[in-house]
């Protein structure tokens, strides 16, 4: 497997809430009232997509703590 790691950024938006956005996307993939809700949604999406890094920004725009999620349900290679 391998390939380039995907990213989802949790960033403050102009409405005073938080958005989940992929790099180079013109629009947010989702908007949320709180950062906690945005993080929860981003983590769920990252686990579903696999090999995806969630990058959480503070209100000042600086990166807080990135996390990478691997898919748990990837099929195992079994001979037979």
Identify the strand order in the major beta sheet. 3-2-1-4-5
How many strands, which pairing sense, and closed or not: the largest β-sheet? Answer: 5 strands, mixed
Cα gyration radius (Å): 14 Å
What is the count of structural domains?
1
Q: N-to-C terminal Cα separation, in Å?
A: 20 Å
Quick overview:
It contains one helix and five strands. With 80 residues, it is of the alpha+beta class. It has one domain (6-69).
General description of the model:
The structure is a single chain. Strand 2 and strand 3 (30-32) form a beta hairpin. The protein has a five-stranded mixed beta sheet with strand order 3-2-1-4-5, with helices on one face. The mean pLDDT is 86. The chain is α+β, with helices and mostly antiparallel strands and 80 residues long. It is globular, with a radius of gyration of 14 Å. The protein has one domain (6-69). The protein has one helix spanning 35-49, and strands at residues 6-12, 18-21, 30-32, 52-56, 67-69.
Ordered list of secondary-structure elements with their pairings:
Elements: E1 6-12, E2 18-21, E3 30-32, H1 35-49, E4 52-56, E5 67-69
Protein traits:
five-stranded mixed beta sheet; single chain; alpha+beta; about 80 residues
């Amino acid at each position: 497997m391998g390939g380039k790691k995907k990213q989802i950024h949790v960033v403050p938006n102009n409405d005073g809430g938080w958005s989940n956005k992929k790099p180079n996307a013109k629009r947010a993939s989702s908007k949320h009232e709180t950062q906690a809700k945005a993080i929860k949604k981003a983590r769920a999406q990252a686990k579903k997509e696999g090999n995806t890094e969630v990058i959480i920004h503070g209100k000042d725009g600086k990166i807080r703590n990135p996390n990478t999620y691997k898919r748990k349900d990837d099929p195992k290679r079994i001979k037979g």
